Amino acid sequence: MGSGPDGFSGVGMTGRDDGPAWHADPMAGLPLTLIVGSERVLVDRALAQARTAARDTFGRDPDRREITLGDDEAKSDLLEALSPTLFGEPTLIILRDADKFEDPIFAVVEQALADPPEGVALVVLHPGGVKGKKFLTALRAAGAEDVACPAIKKGRETSEFLAGEVRRHGRKSTPEALRALQEAVGHDLPLLVGAIAQLCSDVESGPITEEHVHLYFAGVADMQGYRISDAVWERRPVDALRDLRWSAQSIGRGGVGPAVTAAVASGLRNIAKVQSLPSTMSDADVKAETGISQDWMLRNIRARAKRWRPDRLARAAVTLSDLDVAMKGGLRRGEALDSDQKLHELEEYVVRTASRVDPE
Q1: For 242-265, what is each residue's pLDDT tens digit?
Q2: Do 232 and 309 share a domain, yes or no?
Q3: Does residue 271 fall inside a structural domain?
Q4: Is 298 in contact with 287 (CB distance < 8 Å)?
Q5: What pTM did the predictor assign?
């Protein structure tokens, strides 16, 4: 399989229409991907592509088995994962911390490469560095698809990565916008990726500009808007109120409103999207349907969705819509709130919504 839309290679396998849908081509060997590096955003993306490739090969979403090398049970867990399943379900095995490979467990991998089990794909994650280099060399010699996920350095590398993220969403941005976003968020790539996703969703047309970034994120150190949102939708009212007051102190009462309501609205939309889909839908299908790109993000949103009944979420959405209007000046002349009133309304919303009491 060639490079995906993000420029990362998937595992070396190709979907087939002939023969049983869940069988890989036995002549192709064990589908094997080697992911090397510690940049979480890139690693998560490479894992998602490996899973998509496995699903294309086997004709269905594989069972995902994660094994951490160095654990006492790693070898027995790997042997079990490589064994045929009762109903022949395909399996994607993910071996983490490959810098802790030892000869006995690598011998199990070598045996699987020499005699590939049916319906199994293997992904090996190595954090980078020289430890375990001989095992990486052996995997590459066996034909592993090699995906590099090195840490993205501050400065030019981060700016280029962010520009690529904007293009992934089919949008454009100005260099000034990306600089302003980094100043607001800092060098936290998962948060930067989430911020770009929100901007691309909320800014309906034209390039994303510095003014758009200032509207949503300027001065919100460490992405307090998203922290407040997480606390609200995870029903942590004390944390939501604490983070809101910290944010108001750091950037001023008058400027905190739009950033908070935008972040909370983004969190609400993601929960609603996930709730609208069948609970049996695979992670890959949910991500394709909702546009949620990261595995960790989907896991968090699914956990939050379980905390909310649809009727409660709908009432929270209506109240949030009114709050957003108030934060931006009101609908009619004379309705604008002063800074203290805005903060009071924000505090009341996050505490009431995050609490177990139904929003009215």
Answers
A1: 888 877 776 555 556 777 888 899
A2: yes
A3: yes
A4: yes
A5: 0.55
